[in-house]
Amino acid sequence: MRARPDISSQSGMTLIEVMMVVFIIGLATGLVVLTIPPRPTPEQAT
User: Fold this and answer.
1) Cα dist. 29→6, 17, 20, 33, 37 in Å?
2) Between the CA atoms of 21, 23, 25 and 28, what dihedral angle is there, to the nearest 10 degrees?
3) What whole-number distance in Å separates Cα of residue 41 and Cα of residue 39?
4) The whole model's pTM is what?
5) How does DSSP assign 1-46, residue by residue?
6) Terminal C-alpha separation, the chain
7) How many Cβ atoms sit within 10 Å of the Cβ of residue 31?
8) What's the CA gap between 16 and 21, in Å, rounded?
9) What span, in angstroms and rounded, lies between the C-alpha atoms of 15 and 12?
10) What would the pLDDT profile of 18-39 be if each residue is shown by its tens digit?
11) Among residues 12, 32, 9, 13, which one has the least CA distance to residue 21?
């Protein structure tokens, strides 16, 4: 009987990969927030 290959060491994401995903999402969120035009204050609306 053959032993099944050990794939547990290759499954999942590494810490660096998770940190890169969080960093990219943070950059995208920052760009979206910076491109949203500011809402006028009540003094400017009148």
Assistant:
1) 38, 18, 14, 6, 15
2) -140
3) 6
4) 0.58
5) -PPPP--TTTSS--HHHHHHHHHHHHHHHHHHHHHSPPPPPHHHH-
6) 83
7) 9
8) 9
9) 10
10) 999 999 999 999 999 999 988 8
11) 13
